[in-house]
Design brief:
The structure is a single chain. The chain has 13 helices and 14 strands. The strands form 6 sheets. It has a 4-stranded antiparallel beta sheet, covered by helices on one side. A two-stranded antiparallel sheet has the order 1-7. Strands 3-4 form a two-stranded antiparallel ribbon. It is globular, with a radius of gyration of 24 Å.
């Protein structure tokens, strides 16, 4: 039985520091190895590397694949699965399952380095990058130019990294498979990044694992041409469209992955992004808001083209109703609620337009030092600048569209949030207000 759904441990983008031509094995070597494990790789699938060391799968020259073609089948036997037994510090640690996998990877990787050919994973390990350009490599100036949301994501990311590295170093001291092998903090960091950026759960029931070939796919949220099918024996890569020679093969890692998460986890700007967070913050324990779906990060969004989701408008309408009005609203059926939202849409548009003005201020100006192009000159710095601009552009389009909608209606009055003389300003890096108000979306900060 197959299922077209896969839960990613994090994301799989392959932005690495390896230099052009430095890889030890091409796709032909690892493809032959996968086949030896019972897998399959389409002859049209090749690996390409750009001038900056970034790599990905492409359709080979003078070849093409049709929609529905199997591009690869990677059996479970070719993957690296989580370590058996408990890793010191894993229980209760965020990403505990990934920590177990990092421990297994660390054992395999270091053992293979100490005695080449001893683990049987040499051809796969040779395809991995020598390093990862993630948010941990940001300079102080670059980190200071992150938006408030990206700052919060990086804070959680850094805390997880510190906990995992400490646990992996303890594991290395106790593991029989690493006895006599020196394991440094840099080794533990490499294991952490390898798993965080490449691991996948083939189904909800399976532990995360690392799969060769599959983890060379790059990300495209808007127009991916590959889908993944989880099977009982492994995973299959299938063409979602006809793909011409030389075209990159790409996968959508998940709609839940915001441009800020891509930036922090992988150090590049996701120019293929779709919806972005709506920046609404409400109490987590409010049952009415949960019922309405106002904490659904995939529903309360600003679309890339500049429109806002109907769910976002409904949640803003609900927030500006007086307490008794909210209770009455919850008693209505779906049709009656839609009528209320339609009647109050312009009210909500005025409120949210003002709010977006404050949201835009969360993103550092690209024209002011040190967050301008003259100062952010490294690849990571340029990624920070580009991500901020991508998000500012999306919010600015939404701001202008809503403002035009209100103007077209002939309205000029300011709508105020019920219970307050005016909305509270959003300050950069502030903690979310526990009261119901327009604010930063905490859900987008989650790992």
């Amino acid at each position: 039985m197959t299922a077209r759904c896969i839960w990613f441990a994090a994301v799989l983008a392959l932005r690495c520091t390896r230099a052009e031509g430095a890889r030890a094995a091409g796709l032909g070597d690892v493809a032959a190895w996968v086949k030896g494990k019972g897998g399959r790789v389409h002859p049209a699938v090749a690996m390409a590397q750009d001038a900056h060391g970034g790599r990905g799968l492409v359709v080979a020259e003078n070849a093409s694949v049709a929609m529905g073609d199997e591009l690869a089948f990677i059996p479970a036997a070719a993957g690296i699965e989580a370590s058996e037994g408990s890793v010191v510090g894993a229980e209760g640690t965020p990403g505990a399952a990934e920590l177990q996998l990092a421990a297994r990877f660390l054992r395999v990787w270091k053992a293979e380095a100490a005695a080449p050919g001893s683990t049987g994973y040499g051809p796969y390990l040779a395809t991995l990058p020598e390093g990862y350009a993630t948010g941990t490599a940001l300079s102080d100036d670059e980190a200071g130019c992150l938006s408030a949301s990206a700052q919060a994501i990086k804070s959680e990311y850094d805390a997880m990294r510190a906990a995992h590295v400490s646990a992996l170093l303890d594991f290395a001291q106790l593991d029989a498979g690493l006895r006599g092998i020196d394991v440094t903090r840099s080794d533990a960091l490499y294991a952490f990044h390898t798993v965080l950026t490449r691991a996948v759960r083939a189904s909800d029931e399976r532990a995360p694992a690392l799969y060769p070939v599959f983890d060379i796919l790059n990300h495209d949220q808007s127009a991916p041409n590959v889908v993944v099918e989880a099977t009982e024996g492994g995973i299959r890569l299938v063409a979602a469209a006809r793909v011409a020679a030389g075209t990159p093969l790409t996968l959508n890692y998940g709609r839940h992955l915001s441009p800020n998460k891509i930036l922090v986890f992988h150090g590049f700007a996701d120019k293929t992004h779709g919806d972005v967070q709506g920046y609404l913050s409400f109490p987590a324990d409010n049952a009415d808001l949960a019922e309405l779906g106002c904490r659904d990060a995939e529903a309360v969004v600003v679309h890339r083209g500049g429109t806002v989701s109907q769910k976002l408008i409904e949640c803003v309408v609900f927030s500006i109703l007086p307490a008794e009005g909210r209770a009455a609203y919850m008693a209505l059926d779906a049709e009656a609620r839609a009528e209320v939202v339609a009647e109050r849409r312009l009210d909500a548009a005025e409120v949210y337009t003002g709010h977006l003005t404050q949201v835009l201020a969360l993103y550092p100006s690209p024209h002011t030092a040190p967050c301008d192009a003259k100062h952010l000159t490294s690849p990571l710095g340029r990624a920070v600048l580009a991500t901020n601009e991508l998000l500012r552009a999306a919010y600015l389009r939404a701001h202008d569209a809503l403002k035009d909608e209100v103007r077209a209606s002939g309205r000029r009055r300011r709508v105020e949030v019920a219970g307050a003389s005016k909305p509270k300003p959003i300050k950069r890096r502030r903690e979310p207000d526990p009261e119901m108000e327009l604010g930063e979306d905490e859900d987008d900060w989650d790992m």
